[in-house]
Amino acid sequence: MMINDNVLLITGSGRGIGAATALLAAERGYSICLNYLNDEKSAVNVRDQILSRGGKCITIRADVSDERQVIAMFDDIDRQLGAITHLVNNVGILKQKMAMIDMDGERFQQVLLTNVMSHFYCSREAIKRMSLSRGGRGGAIVNVSSGAAKSGSPFEYVDYAASKGAVDTFTIGLSKEVAADGIRVNCVRPGGIYTDIHADGGEAQRVDRIAKNFPMQRGGTPEEVAYAILWLLSDEASFVTGSFTDLCGGV
């Protein structure tokens, strides 16, 4: 495996879309930083797969909703891999599904803090290192939103949907703000993907239930999302910024 000089941070990358993106990116020569919070075993497993194939990969435990931990993580990446050139803001949490009226404020705040502020903190630190005006060489950011940003997820995850709607708006504004500084910012909106996040919401088989409503009549895989993310990160998408790619089987 050939290593290039691109350094990619993927948040929440021990499982699902993050793990699939890391494995594919490593195949394409990126040096990878896998960020995780609780599931060290899964992150180490992904790292070991990458290393066994000749790739370059480190793992860093950090709560990316905490500003101080994000700053420390980026400093650590600088020391171990060099300044990052690419970022995938993938981390996100989902709570037990319920109607909004049954949610408490603490839950809503935690979802917003994790799913929105993590994108802000990580993007800010990445831009400091990527910006042409600050001595960087440009770069690319991909935010992972959700089809829920458009559906609103009534009676299930209104808080999650609201957080992803914020990610969409953040993508639009940030993409315009940093475009002249050599940084592209795009967004993918997966929906109905077979990942463990559905178990977090209390319905591990949710994709099987809803897939019959998709025009494509099936759920998607993390690898299918990863291919879209890697294209947006790559120079093949060099004239693409502020865009949204829906991966929802036609919904």
From TrEMBL:
InterPro entries: NAD(P)-bd_dom_sf (IPR036291), SDR_fam (IPR002347). CDD domains: SDR_c. The keyword Oxidoreductase applies. Transmembrane segments: none annotated. Its EC number is 1.-.-.-. Keywords: Oxidoreductase. GO terms for molecular function: oxidoreductase activity, acting on CH-OH group of donors. Belongs to the short-chain dehydrogenases/reductases (SDR) family. This is SDR family oxidoreductase.
